[in-house]
Amino acid sequence: MNIKLFFIIILLPWGNAPLAEPLGTLFYSPTERAALVAARAGISQSAVYTLNGITQRGAGKTVAWINGRAATEDPPDLAIPTLVIKRDHVLIEGHPIKVGESLDIISGQRVLRLPEQAVQVKP
What we know:
Low-confidence stretches: none
Shape: elongated
Largest sheet: 5 strands, antiparallel
Structural class: alpha+beta
Number of helices: 2
Strand content: 25-35%
């Protein structure tokens, strides 16, 4: 029996097998994955985040105002992949952002719109 014919006969049943699902975006950061998901959904996504303020309720959730929109840790906001709200700043993808500051997550460029000590945290 010819060796080529043998392999064709052996591999023939798998020739019509359905293809495995693609691996997707395994090697992207959460920010890049969120941008890809938003782009696929037709949502305009930016890697620049501006922290407009933080609202902390007595018995409720803490809300961070990012790019003019309210965002909470739970449930997570699709436009902000990893958000941790602290008392006087937030962490987006592990990068701290103060109130009044803008940060481009990809380039790391920061822009502080308010002078230092202009924002005070009151207990």
